[in-house]
Amino acid sequence: MTTDGRIPEVVERIPQADRGAVQRISPGDLVELATDVGPVPMNVGAVLLLAGAPDADVAAVLARRIGGIPRLRQRLVTPPWGLGRPYWVDDAAFDVHAHVSHVRCASPGDQAALLAVAVDAVTRPLPRSQPLWRAVVVTGLVDEQVGLVVVLHHVLADGIGGLAVLARLVDGDGSVSPAPVDFGPAGAARPGPRAWDLLADSAVDRWHTLRGALKAVVRAHRGRVELGRGGRGAPRCSLNAPTGPRRKVATAEVDLDPVRAAGRRSGATVNDVLLVAVSGAMARVLHGRGEEVAELVVSVPVSARASTTSHDLGNRVGVMPVRAPVQGSVPERLARVAQITRAQKTHARGASAALVGPVFRLLASAGLFRWFIDRQRLVNSFLTNMPGPTGPLAFAGARILRVIPVTITAGNVGVAFAALSYAGRLTVTVIVDPDVVPEVDDVVAALESELRAVADA
Q1: Where in the chain is the domain with CATH 3.30.559.10?
Q2: pLDDT tens for each residue of 110-133
Q3: Coil, strand, or helix at residue 149?
Q4: With bands split at pLDDT 50, 70 and 90, how would you rate the model's confidence at 41?
Q5: CA 417 and chain centroid, separation
Q6: CATH 3.30.559.30: which residues of the chain?
Q7: pTM of the model
Q8: How far apart are the C-alpha atoms of 141 and 399, rounded to whole Å?
Q9: Are 66 and 100 a contacting pair, CB within 8 Å?
Q10: What's the CATH code, domain 218-456?
């Protein structure tokens, strides 16, 4: 992040030495691909609310800017004969207009209507025969505002990778190339690898896997620590029931500084504050249903890297289930959550991927992953929190008023949360299956109340 709050643009080119190399997806990416078996696809999205119409055609702007994001011009190929993991190849038929659409928002054109369009965009599968992304321009909003919904398949990027994509799409300091990236002579797409290339690359990859077996065992042990040693499952509650294809989202928004200050007073992070708030909000909803729990387990992603670039996307992330107390005073709960997360972060960040990834891939290959996630008793909910730009941004000359994250979870998690800070504000998106959690407005109200309680504590 730059000192003036912008996400820094980085001038990057594809090294000539890498042209023709087999660009395999990582083991972490493979988990996202293999576990895409639910009634909703494993897509992630962001809504950019613009103060007015962009100064230029959105498709033309994106065509220029995705030159710095190679994955957005590549499609995924599954190799024949079991020759290793799927790999990326340049899409020779790439056409940006196949990925950009325009929608007029339904009346009254408010944020709820915009979010309904976003949900539709995120929950529609992306064609596997094309680069795995879409953008939807939303008009008809109040005050002549315009929405831009950007959707990626999770195999492309984790949360930090998504921020790197955002850095390339928004207006920068002029360092973005004014023309699409040159993928080869005369701008032609690079040819995919030959069968011999795949065979040789697969053999090398298997050799490195065998050589790293001992390190994998160590990472798996560290991953067990990151997952926690309690051994107890998540409390049973009605918020955990198999979800279907429908999703509804709403947001809670607060100033970031009071939340950050509240955390500092208790030796806690913004993420700790959010854990207290979302667990407290769920407990309030359960209380309204006549259910009482002492604690709830909320899983948060833990990145194995501090930053990335638009040439280094993919997934390098583990999970950290946090057993958050929902009884007692707010300061007591916050202190306890901070203590738990500090203890679980003492080991390698993201190490749990070494343990969870192979198990999930095994379940998926056996056709059991959908059965597992519909019945799991490991977590009650998920929380994703990403620190965004501290200063205001623009897209094609139009000021960005809000950036709203939209993530989708499957299985028996009826409500999940995604948080993103932007220009001094913290937006927390509440994502529900309305058939499991119809009281989304109650969740938002309870979340806002919990955040105020933490800030005032």
Answers
A1: 16-179+192-208
A2: 999 999 999 999 999 999 999 999
A3: strand
A4: very high
A5: 11
A6: 218-456
A7: 0.84
A8: 15
A9: no
A10: 3.30.559.30
Hey, what CATH topology would domain 16-179+192-208 get? Chloramphenicol Acetyltransferase (3.30.559)
Residue 302: what pLDDT? 82
CB 412 within 8 A of CB 373: yes
Q: Which amino acid, 432?
A: V
Q: Strands across the sheet with 398-407, in order?
A: 100-104, 133-139, 146-153, 43-50, 398-407, 394-395
Q: Stretch 16-37: mean pLDDT, rounded?
A: 72
DSSP H or E stretch at residue 64? helix 58-65
Query: Exposure pattern of 17-35 as b/e (b: 16+ CB <10 Å)?
Result: eeeeebbbbbbbbbbbbbb
User: Is residue 307 packed enough to be buried (19+ CB in 10 Å), middle (13-18) or exposed (0-12)?
Assistant: exposed
Separation of alpha carbons 350 and 358, rounded Å: 14
Instruction: Check whether 192 has a pLDDT greater than 80.
Output: no
Residue from 284, 215, 239 nearest 446 by CA = 284
pLDDT at 23: 80
The two three-digit tokens of residue 158, written as one number: 């984790």
Question: For 336-375, b where at least 16 C-beta lie within 10 A, e where not — what string?
Answer: bbbebbeebeebbbbbbbbbbbeebbebbeeeebbebbee
Contact between 287 and 193 under an 8 Å Cβ cutoff? The reply is no
Tokens encoding 181: 């990236």
